[in-house]
Design brief:
This protein is an alpha+beta fold. It has one domain: 2-Layer Sandwich (Alpha-Beta Plaits). It is built from five helices and six strands. It has a four-stranded antiparallel beta sheet with strand order 4-5-3-6, with helices on both faces. The chain has a two-stranded antiparallel ribbon with strand order 1-2. A hairpin with a 2-residue loop joins strand 1 and strand 2. Helix 1 packs across helix 2.
């Protein structure tokens, strides 16, 4: 599935694409190692695949994740992110059982999330943002959202 291809399922045609972001519990920097980040990325991709969520782009930082995803029309963005977080945490704990020492209650990801529909922003802009991890610009834009009545404009990132 390419980022600009319309999906045609159950009498519905369109794009159901979102920019997703979530953090580890208490922003612990448990993904410092390139090896751990690679395994976490594989777990996230596997979890998404199990729920028919297509991840176009995924970036795993030391304490958070950014993704650009197409989700099924029958699933809300919040539900999609919750399913990815829940299943990937299970898979991560299976591979790294010592993480249970840091997360004894089994909550690898924090309950918070950032979800943004792609809407008027091109998929290339989202991919570029995620690949370049321009977090400082995202925070600047988030501070201005109260002043801006419309949707958050990510076009300013490029």
């Amino acid at each position: 599935m390419s980022s600009g291809t319309f999906t045609n399922k159950n009498h519905t045609v369109g794009l159901n694409q979102f920019h997703l972001e979530w953090c580890t519990k208490k922003r612990f920097k448990c993904m410092r190692s390139e090896y751990v980040r690679k395994i976490v990325e594989e777990c996230i991709r596997q979890a998404a695949s199990e729920y028919n969520i297509f991840l176009h782009t995924l970036a795993v930082g030391i304490d958070h994740v950014h993704g650009f995803a197409s989700i099924p029309f029958t699933m809300s963005p919040s539900e999609a992110e919750g399913k990815i977080k829940g299943r990937s945490a299970y898979l991560i704990f299976r591979i790294f059982p010592n993480f249970r020492l840091r997360y004894p209650k089994g909550h690898f990801w924090s309950p918070g999330k950032f979800i943004r529909s792609i809407s008027n922003v091109t998929s290339g802009a989202i991919k570029g943002y995620i690949e370049n991890q321009q977090l400082d610009k995202l925070h600047e834009t988030m501070e201005q959202i109260e002043k801006e009545p419309g949707q958050l404009n990510l076009a300013g990132f490029f």
